[in-house]
Design goal:
Blueprint lengths: L6 H4 L8 E4 L2 E5 H6 L31 E4 L2 H4 L2 H5 L11 E6 L1 E4 L3 H14 L5 E4 L11 E6 L2 E6 L5 E2 L6 H9 L20 E6 L1 H4 L3 E4 L6 H6 L5 H10 L12 H9 L3 H8 L4 H7 L15 H6 L22 E2 L6 H11 L30 E4 L2 E8 L9 E7 L2 E7 L2 E3 L6 H4 L5 H7 L5 E10 L3 H6 L1 E5 L5 E7 L17 E7 L8 H14 L2 H16 L6 H4 E13 L17 H5 L6 E3 L10 H18 L4
Parallel strand pairs: 3-22, 4-16, 5-6, 5-17, 6-13, 10-19, 17-23
Antiparallel strand pairs: 1-2, 7-8, 9-12, 10-11, 14-15, 15-16, 18-21, 18-22, 19-20, 20-21
Bound molecules: flavin-adenine dinucleotide.
Length: 636
């Protein structure tokens, strides 16, 4: 990529940890190469031991890898040939001779939970193999670490919290408790210190609003006062002040039922433009906002927006049943739900983590990746292994074994198992098992996962944020709509950040889409965008965006940014249905329900199978998939 003229001023030539890994091998430090140096030569310390652990480097310890992570290129390079049928016919010579009671495709929370449920029921001597295409387990629940100036900074590359708008099932709740997590203790660990005094802001960019301007006080100061400070046109300001206040009834003469029926079929944006008569300029302010599943103002059904209490609807006289919520069912580790994945691994492979860790010590427990896949250990986790084909030995209804082939280091290997659980992505399963009934394959292919990024940028101080009085900034029209300070959680010896002269992780989130298209098309466009950008392009975007927002506070991208990890997830959230994008179908006929039917010795887990992007769903689907396989084995 030819770097733009301001690249050097932005610090693109600085040596920071941003290694790109290809097939698990470091291919260089981009900035170091530009600067003609290495990280240590540039004064950046070599990775130190994660507190309490033996010395590690990124080659042995995946959380320390930076650069392009998430669904990084090498992890997903087999997906396209897989979907094109390349691995449909495989020679028997790939057989490794390994035999298992259960093979699980996918080492995310769902796959790990499935192994846990299986062992809990049938015993810890059951032979289980878990395959994952990434160089780390956890799926979306990924840990990112930076080691800087002798201190470890832990962030989350995906799944952030145990949090849900739905109550956890008994199975999910019991699992969380078995792992030693008491969610009600959350407040003990989240003292934020001076950060609590800072608030939210909005960044108006010059491409859409005529000039770059950060306006602090979003949601904190009265809306008329807030909008007065923005570069919006007078008309847009007046419209926004109106809809953020008490609205009149924009649908007079309609009954509540008629209003709800209408709102179910139009977007929040359509409602604001057509009924509330706001100007298109005003919509730009709302572009980064939306409903469930990372939907935006133009893809969120107006009824869903109204139910969520979004602006514009409070004069319609609509009533909604109160949403059922369990009290404070939310818990955040500094590495998000990667700690859940680690706790699961500590139970599945006791040698990988010392002792039986619980919530108080899991974050600091050293994890030995070399113990994950050791011959003779009942449960094995094989990373860097992409499943490419699953076949029954005979008719699926009567077969007693399956053969699972996967690609590792460019070679196909095949194992045999008495059953398989697909805890991977629904959209790949038809290519892995082309013998599935056509209706089931169509159903599995229905959903389009939500493209997302959770990017972690280590900065050496956050005085610029403090000076501007902000801890989070919404940029409605930029690639990264969210920027926030992530002070971490003070737990089990790990210390969160409290003062502005300490380094801190700045989290930048994105959910790329294409406003105006139907939702699934927007998801596809966003996936394409994420897959087409190089790390350097992401880095440039991040540096320039941060500079445009924070230079007023004295931010210097070249010296302040000391590490960047891009977690791109083209295969992000599981898709959920709504009244705008999906036809009404009775529950039992919904694509995810048809798609997850057992097929011979294969059952289907993963949050896609529950059409809900939550950890509890991933656990529930694992539980169901295990139960279904028990039924097939006559074990109930
Ligand atoms: C950025 C982000 C933030 C999130 N935040 C939250 C949150 O705060 N709270 C919450 O409850 N949920 C959150 N979620 C939702 C999250 O998806 C679920 O909570 C949960 O982690 C999903 O687990 P899973 O095992 O079902 O799927 P995944 O985590 O996707 O795991 C599936 C695994 O299977 C692997 N796989 C796929 N195909 C193959 C193959 N052919 N061979 C081998 N392996 C394969 C995948 O690479 C992946 O590692 C978030 C998701 C994202 C993307």
């Amino acid at each position: 990529m030819k770097l733009p003229r301001d690249a050097r001023a932005l610090g693109m030539d600085r040596a920071i940890p941003r290694r790109d890994f290809l097939n698990g091998i470091a291919i260089g430090i981009a900035g170091a190469a530009l600067a003609g140096g290495t990280s240590s030569a540039a004064g950046i310390p070599e990775p130190q031991a994660a507190a309490g652990a033996t010395p590690v480097d990124a080659a042995q310890y995946p959380p320390l890898r930076s650069g392009l992570r998430g669904n990084y290129p090498a992890a997903i390079e087999a997906f396209a040939p897989l979907q094109q049928g390349t691995y449909r016919q495989l020679p028997t010579s790939t057989d490794s001779g390994e035999k298992y009671d259960l093979v699980i495709v996918g080492g995310g929370i769902s796959g790990l939970a499935a192994a846990h449920f299986w062992r809990r029921a049938l015993g810890t001597d059951q032979k289980i193999l878990i395959l994952d295409n990434h160089d780390d387990f956890g799926g979306h629940a990924k840990r990112n670490e930076f080691h800087y100036n002798g201190r470890t900074f832990i962030g989350y590359g995906g799944t952030q919290s145990i949090a849900t708008p739905f109550p956890y099932s008994y199975a999910a709740k019991r699992l969380v408790e078995e792992l030693g997590i008491k969610v009600e203790r959350n407040s003990e660990f989240n003292a934020r210190g001076p950060l609590q005094r800072l608030g939210a802001a909005t960044f108006f960019d010059k491409e859409h609003f005529g000039e770059d301007r950060v306006v602090a006080g979003t949601g904190r100061i009265p809306w008329p006062e807030f909008f007065a400070k923005t570069p919006l046109s007078d008309v847009a300001k007046a419209d926004l002040i109106r809809i953020y206040g008490q609205n009149p009834d924009y649908m007079p003469g309609m009954t509540e039922e008629q209003k709800k029926a209408k709102l179910a079929g139009i977007s929040w944006q359509d409602f604001l433009l057509r009924y509330a008569k706001v100007s298109p300029d005003a919509i730009l302010f709302l572009r980064g906002q939306g409903g469930r599943n990372n939907k935006r103002v133009d893809s969120t059904p107006a009824l869903e927006a109204a139910e969520r209490g979004s602006v514009g609807f409070n004069g319609l006289g609509l009533t909604f049943p109160p949403e059922f919520r369990e009290a404070s069912y939310s818990f955040h580790f500094p590495d998000g739900n990667a700690s859940i994945a680690r706790l699961l691994v500590s139970r599945l492979i006791p040698g990988a983590l010392p002792g039986t860790p619980g919530m108080d010590n899991i974050v600091q427990s050293g994890l030995d990746y070399s113990k994950l896949d050791v011959a003779g250990t009942p449960t094995r986790i094989r990373l860097g292994s992409t499943a490419v084909r699953l076949q029954h030995d005979g008719d699926p209804d009567h077969a007693t074994t399956v053969r699972l082939s996967y690609l590792r280091n460019g070679k196909v290997e095949t194992v045999t198992a008495a059953g398989a659980i697909m805890a991977c992505y629904n959209s790949l399963i038809p290519s892995l098992i082309p013998e599935l009934p056509a209706k089931q394959k169509d159903a599995l292919a229905y959903a389009v996962k939500v493209p997302m990024m959770y990017n972690n940028i280590l900065v050496r101080r956050w005085t610029a944020f403090e000076k501007l009085g902000v801890s989070s900034i919404n940029s409605p029209c930029m690639l990264h709509t969210g920027t926030s300070l992530d002070p971490g959680t003070t737990i089990g010896g790990y210390k969160g950040v409290t003062t502005s002269d300490e380094p801190i992780i700045v989290r930048m989130t994105a959910s790329p889409n294409k406003p105006g298209l139907p939702r699934k098309e927007q998801n596809r466009a966003g996936q394409k965008q994420l897959l087409s950008m190089t790390f350097e392009q992401y880095e440039y975007e991040i540096r320039s965006h941060l500079t445009r927002m924070l230079s007023g506070g004295g931010f210097d991208p070249a010296s302040d940014i000391v590490g960047i990890t891009v977690n791109r997830w083209p295969h992000g959230y599981a898709y959920t249905y709504d009244t705008l994008a999906d036809p009404f179908v009775p529950q039992e006929e919904r694509p995810h329900v048809i798609g997850r039917r057992r097929f011979g010795l294969v059952t289907i887990a993963n949050s896609d199978a529950g059409a809900a992007a939550f950890t509890n769903q991933a656990i529930d689907e694992a539980h169901r998939a295990v139960e279904e396989l028990f039924v097939r084995h006559g074990l109930t």
